[in-house]
Specification:
Largest sheet: 6 strands, antiparallel, barrel
Mean pLDDT: 85
Helix content: 10-25%
Shape: elongated
Number of helices: 14
Amino acid sequence: MRTAGLPVCALLIFGGGGPIGLLLGPLPVSAQEAASAVQDVTLQNVTMTFGGTVLTAPQVIVSGTRLTKDDLLGLLRSGPEPLAARLAKFDAASIVIPELRSDTRIGTKTQTATYRDVTAKDVRGGRIAQASAAGLTAAEAGGEAKHSASYGRIEMKDVDLAAMARLYGEAGDAKSPMLRIYGGFSAADISMEAEGTVVKIARLEGADVSGRQIPATWTGALDAMARVDPTQPASADKARILGTVADLIDGFSVGSFQASGLTINQTREGEPVAMTMGRMAFTSGNLTFEDLGFTVGEASGKLSRLSFAGFSFAPTVAAMRKLSTQAGEPTEADLRQMTPVLGTLAFKDLRLDLPPDEVPASPKPPAKSPGAASPVLPPAATAATHIGLRDGAFAFGPLRDGVPTTGRANLSGLTLPASAVAGIPGLGSLGAYGYRDLDLNVVADTAWNEAAKELSFSEVSVSGKDMGRVTINGTLGGIGPAVFDPDPSVSTFAMLGATAKTFDLRIENTGLFERFIASQSKSLSLKPEELTQEYVTATTFGVPAILGNSAGAKAIGAALGQFVTKPGTFLLSAKTKNAGGIGMLEFSTAPTPGAVLDRLDVSAKAN
């Protein structure tokens, strides 16, 4: 992208190039002068300097202009009058440039771009109604790796050359109003190569692009960024560049933008890596990707849709400006302040195809002759793993020290083979219960209340097809701002002061318990009804004994016994008798479960 960056802007100066513009107002009265005042002028071997860019054109044909050849050369020649003011005097019915070359110096590198068949129509006061180029090629010299780019046809409308010149060549205070510099643009058949990575885009298009003047100017900012070596130790220049980058981010706006037909190909550590994207669209703060795909060696994945809503770089920009005035490397706290507003991330129809893992072969080797070396067995391959997700969404609330204070995760239709969770406690036995493929839904909804110093879990649930659902609600107290402190020692110590206040558990069975009983019965050589009766006895009498035989303990035991007898729904609710809750340390040091249960108001029921 850097390879095709500033050279694209060069096209603007002669009336064709990247996406920038102001809408044309009514034509001035001077444009309606008698035809005798209009003439065609041809310029030969034109050279113009624009900041760090040198533009050259063997021929420029200006038609329908009231300016003489000397007038035109005067507007293009550097002098005391600012370039923006000179370009504002440019009037013509059309401009044709068969070939335009741009040479731009950025740091130690030079970017060269050549545009073909540049045309601009209806140029009034430095504003172009329509502009186009048949294509361009660009390359960068001075670096260790090859950087090149090529574009097919480029088209623009409502391009403001004077505004563009002010942005790139005139400093501002980063607080001035936005200048609308492109009305619309499109580019086709784009190909870029950088350090062995090839990027191709079938089409780019956008509308309503604006920019704001900044202290370093856009040209100065890009040049300063190119000169900074991120691998070097901290320096004042390296810190200041953060403020410059913040100015650029905050000083650029686009109404809408979309790209289609994207492919990225590279080789990483000898393994081919490829990515494809059907379409990307941005409008009104929302960013959407459609038909994404990737392959990394034998692994591959597809994603039908990925979207971001409510995303904002405002905290990042503020933090970067603050860091630009500090010396030394940024701390963990500084970096966390750069976290952007995350908004809502949603995706649909995700599929991952992972290659089979190689596992040790059977330990039973074939017979060998006395004295012969042991045979070497080839590894055995397991089946490929397929993971899918029908819908997913992550919503994040306001930030506190770079951490969202509220959040909701919702995953629907998470499908994966039971073998993939074989090593996870609580899930590893699902394969033994007859589940070959899992179909799960996961929800987690949390919120922090600063005034009450509480963290609430309004819903944390996991459900599975033909299995059931487990839902937990609860409230933790003593959660103050220190929990979000970037220093792990501070946040960890703060968590030790947390207290448990409420806890609600809901278990709904839709098939898992029956499969559990069937599997255990077979393993223990018992009939299912015999094993069920043993569990009824154990829960009804054993659980209360373990929990201290209090009224709450007996209620839990009785409800569990009913659930085992007829597996349906089990409900458990607990609330601390003390409004402040029970501290985490008190839980860990309690001599018996009954000692904790005695401090709770407990209710339990089944079915």
